[in-house]
Each structure stands twice: as C-alpha cells, then as structure tokens.
Please model this.
Amino acid sequence: MRSSSYDVSVIGAGPAGYVAAIRCAQLGLKTVCIDRWTSNGRPALGGTCLNVGCIPSKALLDSTEKYHEVLTTYKRHGIIVKDVSMNVKTMIKRKNRIVTSLTRGIASLFKGNKVESIHAHGRYAGGNVVELLDWNTSQKTGEIKADHIILASGSTPIELRSAPFDDDRIVDSAGALEFDSVPKKLGIVGAGVIGLELGSVWNRLGSEVIILEALDEFLPTADHDVAAEAAKIFKRQKLNVLLGTRVESARAQDSGVNINYTVKGNQQQLTVDRLIVCIGRRPFTDNLFTQSSGIQLDERGFIQVDQNCRTSVSNVFAVGDSVRGPMLAHKGSEEGVAVAERIATGVGHINYATIPWAIYTSPEIAWVGETENEVVAAAGKCRTGSFPFIATGRAKAMEDTAGFVKIVADADTDRIRGVHIIGPHASELIAEAVVAMEYHASSEDLARTIHAHPTLSEAVHEAALSVDARGIHRLN
Ligand code: FAD
Ligand code: NAI
Model:
C-alpha cells in the first residue's frame, strides 16, 4: 500500500486543480495531484473542461462555423465551392485528437514542474490524511499525508427526473459531443450556455433544433439589450427557443424520443431523434471526504468556503466548480493560483468582480461586470454608450457585422461598471474590458486610448466615446 508525505495534495486535475498543483510546485512546494478521470480506460488529466467541456465543444463549434461559412458567406466573397459536405466522423476524430494532445500536455507540464500525478479517487479523511481509493472499485489502495489539501472535484450535469439520461437518445452535454451523425430533429432542454452552444453546432449541420426553456425570459444573466439582440439573431438562424416550457416526460423509443411538455399550462407533444438535457451542473463531491473530516457543504451542495477558498478545516482549501461562484474554467484556475500563493506566501488575490463570461455562439456573446439593470438597481442611474459592428470597416470586410458593444459606466465617477458585447470575436474583445476594469478605468480612459484601424476593437473605442456622446463614426 502506497504512503508518502507532501506539502500539498490536490484532489482533482481539472482547470482548478491542475493549475493549483503547477503553481504550488513552482513555489517550491512538494505537490501531488490525485485525479480519477478515465477516458477509453486510460487516465486523462484536465477534468471536464479538457475532456468533455470547453475544449471539445469549441472544436466542434469551430468546425461547424467553418462549414456554415462556406455554405453562406463564401459566395459573397466570390469564392465558389461546389459539393460541400461535412464528414461528421472526421469532425469528431479531429475533436478527439485535440483533446488527447491537450490532456497529454498537462501530463508533460506535471512532469516538467515535478508535480506527482496519481490516478485514483482521493478522499480527505481529516487532519493531514488523504486516502487513495481505486477509481473503479472504491477499494482503499493507500494513503498520503499532506500539510495542505486543495479540493478541486468539479461538477457534473444535473439530471432531469422526467427525462432521465439513457446515454443514447437522451444525453447530457458529453453525449452530445459524440453524435456520429446529424440528428434530423434535435430537442434540447435548457436554453443556457450549453444549450445555445451545442444547439448551434448541430443546427449548422442541418438539424432542426427545438430548445425547451423553463424560464419566461431568454438569457436572463446577460444585459437585456444583448439578450434581445441574441434572441433576434438566433431566431433568424432557426434555433427555435420555446420559453416558459415544462417537460413533463421524455421517453426514448426505437424511433426517437417522445416528449410531453406544457407551455403556459397547455399540453404539447414533440418527437425528436435525440434529446440533450442541459439544465445546469451541480458540484461533484461524492465520497470526497469522510463524515468526520470536518468539511461542510452549503445548502446547495457546494463545499463551504470563505472568501479565501478556505473550508471549515483550516489546512483544507476548495476551488473551482465545487465552490460558490460561476462555473467557469478561468474562475477555477484563478482560485487555484490564489490558493497556491496563499499556502506558499500567505497572500493570494482574486477579483471576482472582473470574471469574464463568453458564449461561443455565432455571433459570440461576452461580458464582464454589471448589466445596465444591475447598475440602475444599485445606484439609481448610470451612463451607457454603444456601437454597432456594422459601422466598423473591419466587420464589413469580414462579412460579420451582427451585434454591438455596450459600455455601462458609473453616472457620478464614469468608472466602467460593465461591458457587454455581442458580435464577432466577442470572447477576445472582452479581454480589453477586463483589463480596463481591473485597472479601475473610466469610459473616458478607454475613449482616450488609441485603437488600431481597421479592427473590431474600434467598436469598443467608439462605444466608450459614445458614453460621452462624442462618437465619430455614428451620429450621437
Ligand atoms: P472539473 O473540470 O470538473 O475537474 C474536476 C476533476 O476532479 C475531474 O477530473 C474529476 O474526475 C476529478 N475528481 C472529482 N472528484 C475526485 C476525487 N474524489 N478524487 C479524484 N479525482 C476527482 N467553462 C469555460 O470557462 N469556458 C467554456 O467555454 C466552457 N465550456 C464548457 C462546455 C461544456 C460542454 C461544459 C460541460 C462545461 C464548460 N465549461 C466552460 C465549464 C468548465 O468545464 C468548468 O467550469 C471547469 O471544468 C471546472 O473546473 P474544475 O477544475 O473545478 O472541475
Ligand atoms: P445554464 O445554467 O447555463 O443553463 C441551464 C438552463 O436550463 C437555464 O436557462 C435554466 O433556466 C434552464 N432549465 C433549468 N431547469 C429546466 C427545466 N426543468 N426545463 C427547462 N429548462 C430548464 O447551464 P448549462 O447550459 O447546463 O451549463 C452549465 C454550466 O457550464 C454553465 O452555467 C457554465 O457555467 C458552464 N459552461 C460554460 C460555457 C462557456 O463559458 N462558454 C459553455 C458551456 C457551459
């Protein structure tokens, strides 16, 4: 039975855990990272994000966006392409290759940074003890001792009792990354981030997509102008989002999935070839700690932590999807770095007010900070400026002119409180806004910053100018 001692033991090698482990090792701490993820019978580092999340979904989004562009915008450039078709199996293989190269990349980073990697299920047993269990049988195979423990066990999809997964026709987001053919009719429960991204993937390949969303409001966490624009654009793309729906039952048959649902109390029926259920994720803490260890969960099942990610046990921290806050890879990674630095130096910092969001639909949607409604609710007033991509030369040259940039600034101080973008490369453009907010910039600071011409970032510049009604390329 294995037994060793470390300065730090990290449980979970997703973007929160593997980043924490690397940073700990860089800071001179003897570090081990325990992870249970298995792909095709082999250990695979990187957690949800690399194996079945951020990376594979973006690989499919990129493949299908290129395919869709060939079909739609190429002829406007004068490019004539005949007999265009998509080989779905090749697309999935490409995605798998990207995933494998990145998960192996983490193994190399661990090696290079001298992070020891153990493939096992880790269970915190109190004090400085972590038990190692066989990832498959849960039999104890050893234990290790560590002065500090970082729990980074991530999250897992929420199952809908009325539409249980069968891993064939009714699937979660991981299953929806593996379809080997294009479903003729695809149902999706949940018009959140996954529903919109994976709905876009299969819609671009020709699926008729119907999204059943429980709420009456579309994308309620986005700024209302962005959500309204997105709803209009997605409707044009024939992503059929049915708001205010309640799925009563969904049953897989040989011929498809029969769904019974209600819209505003009216019973409806729908048959689809496949159904993706993506109604959110829950923290994954199964068998992560013993009852006597002292770790506590909050009322929603997240590991209870303070603002420094410290759990109810002083030498144990928790980071990423298994603790409060947005379930985003970069949020988990930054928490991982901050905790590593706190352990090594006593000081570590993360600014939760400037965590960007990006949704990789076409056009992309990205934001940071508060929405206009949130600022008005908190302060009673605000200043806003916006600029449409159609008025920028670069977006026109790219044939990609949908959307706009909107800046929300404080009415008294002009400090930027939120930036909201729907448009081409919004996920990249938002970085400028994050940096500006990190440095407490005002909208005037952005307005006085020189932006290269012709670029999409000029829309950010013009939106900042228009907060003060002095935009140049649009009438104020
Ligand atoms: P995870 O990535 O879930 O990793 C946790 C790891 O811990 C796993 O390997 C798990 O097997 C392991 N583990 C759990 N318990 C134990 C245990 N007891 N012992 C040993 N190992 C254990 N976020 C973004 O920011 N951008 C995106 O574009 C994006 N796209 C996404 C697309 C999809 C389809 C999905 C599902 C998610 C997406 N996310 C995205 C969210 C992102 O994947 C998560 O926020 C991120 O993976 C969380 O990182 P984590 O390290 O906390 O947890
Ligand atoms: P989500 O929380 O984004 O959206 C779930 C949607 O399902 C919500 O609109 C909710 O109202 C709806 N819903 C809940 N119960 C329902 C029901 N019974 N019937 C119909 N609709 C119902 O969750 P999603 O899309 O599953 O994604 C999980 C998380 O993964 C995201 O919140 C995000 O943190 C992360 N993610 C991030 C991505 C990115 O950063 N680009 C991409 C994909 C996922």
Remarks:
- The CA atoms of residues 223 and 371 lie 5 Å apart.
